[in-house]
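Quick start: read one record
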Amino acid sequence: MGRIVVHEFITLDGVIDNPAWTMEYGFDPKMGGAIGRIMQPSKALLLGRNTYELFAPTWSTRTAAEDPGAPFMNESPKYVVSSTMQNVGWNNSTILGAYVAQTIRSLKQRIEGDIYVSGSGTLVRAMLTDGLVDELHLFVFPLSLGAGPRLFSDGLEAKFSLAEAESYDNGALHLVYRPVR
């Protein structure tokens, strides 16, 4: 049975919107190693429509020489949660349809290994509500934006235990949480 492993860039005030704000901090090479360790045991990607539409044109043209994550992103099976998408252009992509918790549970049962989720805020919020996230990797950047889509929706009650923590020279933290069930 697979596990859903989520990776988010997030501000101190919980904003996960388009993380262009991370550019100001630079990309610490240790962060790349951490993201590689998240991807390494993963056997598939699970993405919401918006993230898929951002990732497909960017990743589909990248090579391993340009980015060590490119082979995983391009060769792995990709599952897209969307009620509006009709066609996919990125290889190995499948549209799952609108979000249904049981569809995600079935995917977890079919995949042997981790299922990697990056971004996909709407999808992640729904999966958190339904208890489907097995590990949450938060790359916390030292700023507050004051407004924007947040990771946790109002009314969501959940408990997590801290499994790992790492700090970077750029001021960011990598916090790994697992739900307390």
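The longest helix spans residues 29-39.
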